[in-house]
Design goal:
Number of strands: 14
Helix content: 25-40%
CATH class of the largest domain: Alpha Beta
CATH topology of the largest domain: Rossmann fold
Shape: elongated
Strand content: 25-35%
Order of helices and strands: EEEHEEHEHHHEHEHEEHEHEEHEH
Largest sheet: 6 strands, mixed
Number of domains: 2
Distance between the termini: 34 Å
CATH architecture of the largest domain: 3-Layer(aba) Sandwich
Number of helices: 11
Strand order of the largest sheet: 6-7-8-3-9-10
Length: 312
């Protein structure tokens, strides 16, 4: 395994930010870390990238213990933080060359690696542009390219596509798949559930510092039921009624969006929509819209987690 974590925990004062985390990440795969702000994602990344020492447990990256051999770990990883890390006053090429020199490359080696990455990330036309003049998507590509200068065995990405438009996001997803095909392992945090669904081989859902789910996207979706029925109504009173009536055929907890006036009801695969419509009608609920769909990672996330400051 490229990344091995056992019983990992981190405490700040008397507060645990992370507790009892276990992970095994094979080479050439993508692991998605999901959770609300404060769930423990950043703490996990900080420990695995040697920026913070664990309070308990062990973690190894690329075969080296993060606490005992941090230098060896750092030489084998790449990190792309959510915030822009490239120098806005340097060109794309000079940014990459600078990162190479800081990592011990000769001037010739740094230039050669920079040219290679400019081609790989479709940045050739922006070679001499200042980083601050690049679009958000191009800057994110440059950040990612910089994190790959040393050909890392493991790449850590913190919300890599936040703020990007759909086209730029899709382009970056394709690049990440290419990186994995080349043999690197990726651990990413993301606020886009679709991103984890489409990219991750495995997903870990964290809530209040603990793992509440771990599996492939398909396994997690199957865990909470096959289908969902979204029922849109006209008032909060009707929304409350749907929750009461829906309890008779729901296979799990019903979620309700008060702003959109939509109740989401998990149902069995053999549940018939016509029977549900009839039941709503018998209880005086005149739904604006009823839609049946397969469970998504959004449903998994909402059913298993609670925002910071709340309890389940």
């Amino acid at each position: 395994m490229t990344v091995e974590v056992s019983g990992l925990g981190k405490r700040y004062g008397d507060q645990w930010a992370l507790r009892d985390l276990d992970l095994s990440v094979p080479k050439g795969t993508i692991l998605g870390l999901l959770g609300h702000n404060g769930a423990g994602k950043t703490t996990t990344i900080r420990i695995l990238t040697t920026l913070s020492e664990p309070t308990e447990g062990t973690a190894s990256v690329a075969g080296f213990d993060v606490a005992k051999h941090p230098g060896d770990v750092r030489r084998r990883i790449g990190v792309a933080a959510q915030q822009q890390t490239v120098d806005g006053l340097l060109s794309a090429r000079l940014n990459l060359e600078m990162v190479g020199r800081l990592n011990g490359f000769t001037k010739k080696e740094a230039r050669a690696r920079a040219e290679q990455l400019l081609v790989q990330f479709d940045l050739v036309e922006s070679t001499n542009k200042l980083a601050k003049a690049l679009s958000g998507g191009m800057r994110r590509r440059l950040d990612l390219a910089a994190s790959l200068i040393t050909r890392p065995e493991v790449l850590f990405l913190d919300e890599p596509t936040t703020g990007l438009d759909p086209r730029s996001r899709n382009d970056l997803w394709a690049m990440l798949r290419d990186i994995v095909r080349d043999g690197s392992t990726i651990i990413l945090t993301t606020q886009y559930l679709e991103e984890a669904d489409r990219l991750a081989d495995d997903v870990v859902v964290l809530d209040h510092g603990r793992t509440v789910a771990h599996g492939t996207p398909l396994e997690l979706k199957q865990q909470i039921g096959n289908d969902r029925i979204d029922i849109k109504v006209r008032s909060e009173e009707e929304l409350s009624q749907v929750q009461k009536v829906g309890a008779s055929f729901a296979t799990n907890a019903i979620s309700a969006d008060v702003d959109l006036l939509v109740a989401t009801v998990p149902v069995a695969a053999d549940a018939r929509l016509i029977d549900i419509v009839r039941l709503l009608d018998e209880n005086g609920i005149d739904a604006v819209d009823i839609n049946r769909r397969q469970a998504s990672l959004d449903d998994v996330f909402l059913s298993l987690t609670t925002p910071k400051g709340m309890t389940r």
